[in-house]
Amino acid sequence: MTVGRWASALFAIVTALLAVPTSSTATDSDLKFAYAFKVEASNGYEILAFAANERADGRGELVLFVSRPNEGASYVAPATLTATSLVADLGALGKVDLTVSPSGRKKSLRSRCDDERRPSSYEPPRFSGSFEFHGEEGYTEAASAPPRDYTRFFADLLCSSTASVEGGGRHLLGARLRLRERRVGYRLDLQANENHPGGRSRFEVGVRETRGGIAITRDTRFWWRADAFRFDPSLRTAHLEPPVPFAGRAIFHRHADPGKRWTGNLTVDLPGRSDVPLTGSGITATLKPACFQGEGAGRRGDCTSR
Predict the structure, then answer these.
(1) How many whole angstroms separate alpha carbon 248 and alpha carbon 109?
(2) pLDDT per residue as tens digits for the range 95-115
(3) What is the pTM for the complete model shown?
(4) How remote is the C-alpha of 82 from its chain's centroid?
(5) Which residues, in sequence order, are bridge partners of residue 88?
(6) 155-166: pLDDT as tens digits
(7) Which residue, 162, 178, 221, 247, is most buried by CB atoms nearer than 10 A?
(8) Other CB atoms closer than 10 Å to residue 129's CB: what's the count?
(9) How many other β-carbons are positioned within 10 Å of the β-carbon of residue 246?
(10) What average pLDDT does this structure show over 207-233?
(11) Is 277 exposed, middle or buried (0-12, 13-18, 19+ CB in 10 A)?
């Protein structure tokens, strides 16, 4: 999980939390704060934290992006910010109790995606206090010394990221299998793409849920060889058997009864939540001709037509 992948969501958060209405007084503006820092975690994970508030009483949100290549999780929790502190109670996940003070030094900063704008001068904050994070099921741990300031986060926030584009139409030889499940407090999405028979397969799966007042998103995405996703040319059937972190297999039958259209024992392990079921009641599956042209697809997505 990278900042680029979350650019749109983060822009919405920043706009909502940091925008100062034209009618606001200087005092109102002075009560709005935003902090960003990084923390190294176990098992190859890194935590990027972003916090901001829009209320005079300091109440705002803390967002933690816990990531390593191809997978990660994000957590959005209530937090309290002042000019000198950042506090958040994450329950069983940990806690943040930081003192914020001026560092007494000046730094120059320019966005990585804006070569024309002059660098900005700023004074990075200094953090002291405690930061603890305990990933569910022990997938990662962080109980570090004071975290590292990452004010660069704000400069790079609006940098463009690689967009995932998908073409459709019956003339395409590739296919896209999509799974969805929706219930109160829970959302599951899976997408598998193969741009032509025998080509590489791309998998992306994510779960969104709310636990103890904390909004959590977990996801993984990667490319694999063709045998992980197979389908017949008329798209009547498809077989899904991806590698770890998946386990089991599942089959799509277009002309079967609705309850038997998507069957099998396929599961996936996501950061902090293992054995997530990908078959069963409440999960719907669709299979359509498509061509994925996003990240990792290569030139033009290697799309082929009938």
Answers:
(1) 49
(2) 999 999 988 787 777 777 766
(3) 0.84
(4) 27
(5) 96
(6) 777 665 545 566
(7) 221
(8) 14
(9) 22
(10) 94
(11) middle
DSSP class of residue 212? T
Query: Is the distance from CB of 282 to CB of 184 less than 8 angstroms?
Result: no
Cα(168)–Cα(290) distance, integer angstroms: 4
Q: Cα Rg for the chain, rounded, in angstroms?
A: 22
**Hey, which residues does 74 pair with through a beta bridge?**
65, 217
57 - beta bridge partners?
none
Side chain identity at residue 149, one-letter code: D
Task: Compute how many other C-beta atoms are within 10 angstroms of the C-beta atom of residue 273.
Answer: 17
pLDDT band (50, 70, 90) for residue 17: very low
Q: Which residues pair with 273 in a beta bridge?
A: 270
Distances (CA, A) of 91 to 96, 132, 171, 214, 293: 10, 11, 52, 9, 41
- Under a CB-based contact definition with an 8 Å cutoff, are residues 64 and 216 in contact? no
Q: Which 3 state secondary structure label does DSSP give 138? A: helix
Dihedral, CA of residue 297, residue 43, residue 5 and residue 110, to nearest 10: -120
Q: Is the pLDDT of residue 10 over 50?
A: no
